[in-house]
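Here we describe the complex-level prediction in full. Unlike the single-chain runs in Section 2.1, the two entities below were treated as one system.
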Amino acid sequence: MNAAVSIGILAAFLVLAVALGLYSARGRDRKALTEWSVGGRSFGTLFVWVLMAGETYTSFSFLGAAGWSYDKGVPIFYLVAYLAIGFAVGYVVGPLLWTYAHRNGLHNISDIVAHRFASPALGAGIAVLATVFLLPYIQVQITGMGVVVAEVSYGAIGLGLAYFLAFLITEAFLVVSGLRGSAWVSVLKDLLVVVLMVVIFVIVPLHFFDGYGQMFATITEHRAQWLTLPGHGDTGLGIGWFVSTSVLNGVVIAIFPTTVAGSLAAANPQVVRRNAIFMPFYQILLFIPILLGFAASLAVPGLGNSDLSLFRMAAEVLPSWLLGLLGVAGTLSAIVPMAVFMLVIGTMWARSILGAHPRTANRQRPLAQLVAFLAGAIALLLTYIWPNALVRLSVVSYEGLAQLLPAVLLALLWRRMSATATVSGLTVGVVFTCVLVFTGNDPVAGINAGLLGLAANLLVVLAVTAIRPANTPPELLAQPESVTLKQ
Amino acid sequence: MFRGRASLWWLLGPAVLYLGALPFVNRIHPLVLGMPFLMFWMLVSTVATPLFIWLAARGDPVWRANRKQRQ
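The structure predicted for the assembly as a whole is:
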């Protein structure tokens, strides 16, 4: 009976989400890639905010954050710290990328690099590399949504079926509506997430601890080890790790392909700047799952999968209809980012690989839609037949994408940087980072391995540039924004 | 990119609060409103972040020149 209620609510809202996503494409251009990939570069402040919130605060941010604080404790605050730093960096970098892409008709990082170096081959390489590192994120969302659906249905819907549903629902609107569809679904997602987080934050402490004072007192007394860095257990997540990871991730998020898609969707660079001011407010919401993760380690101790801690606690107190709504919020938190991950992979392949040839250039939109579909299908298949492959890859994803920083950002500002220098640095950075991570050396002496990889990457770029500097024509570089103003 | 935009120094604010202060705030006591101190500090930093970015924007000539641009 309970399962029927929560499944019914879940099904109804998911149908609503798909309908919203599809409806958003009504009356829009059906041929141009720009409309699909970056919403026709037309979004205002509110829409960019909602979209960015949708893709930044994923099912990991809520379930995973509670899971981290359940297992390890305060190291999870790196998530809040690096996002905050990322918004500050984004105030400068977002408008810079927007202006460069707008001026040159570009859609994401792979064609930005191809344009800067006048090298389609380099753009294609970036697209492939980024795809390899982004696929694990799709899988994380598929499994994240699977777990939520299985929990909310009280086990009536198995994981295998739930994974397939995650794939199906996301593709259903994404292939048709692209980034605009993702933004519309995100409106529903953010409304539900805000309301439900507040509801849980009110109900859970009262039920398990007789109120906040008692909850904090119990946590402080019994979970002291969790409450200062490096947290609980043999984590190696001390201050050095916290600082290096937050700095690295904070800068990288500014050039992360999904962030770039969101920024380029803005109608003008001022929208991107305004978003950098308003986005950080969303972060306050993250304190709820983090805090409740601590509470869960006392209320429902000994869970095998700590990512379930928030749900298990909620399941004990919430009526089935409210649990169903919580399931909707969790599910949509997986669907929106999953959609945008698929979208950026499709966009990069269409722009820099399949549609790079003049003969296929007029078919970039269907090609992007096809690749977005395939990217999801591959991630789904790997989830079924070889689940550990992507899980292992995901460990290196962020640190691998970090190696793109010189190619995407530094190159736009530095006239002397050549394609050779970029490729050399990128290769060294990626190999070095992968070796460190896969030999179990992350963090190295308390420092994030990706940051060391980036340091090696930059050193190689500097060295090669010193030996053979390029002389890039100024029109291929980013224009200073003070110059943009005078136009 | 940064020429004539001195107010952008404010953008370092979040990093200073979240990271620079860590050696001094990595502690449980004193409890503030019942919250362990590090958690309270993270909350303060989070609330202060939009303020820092707004301060950076307020003094930024590029922001001022485009302020009328709505949407």
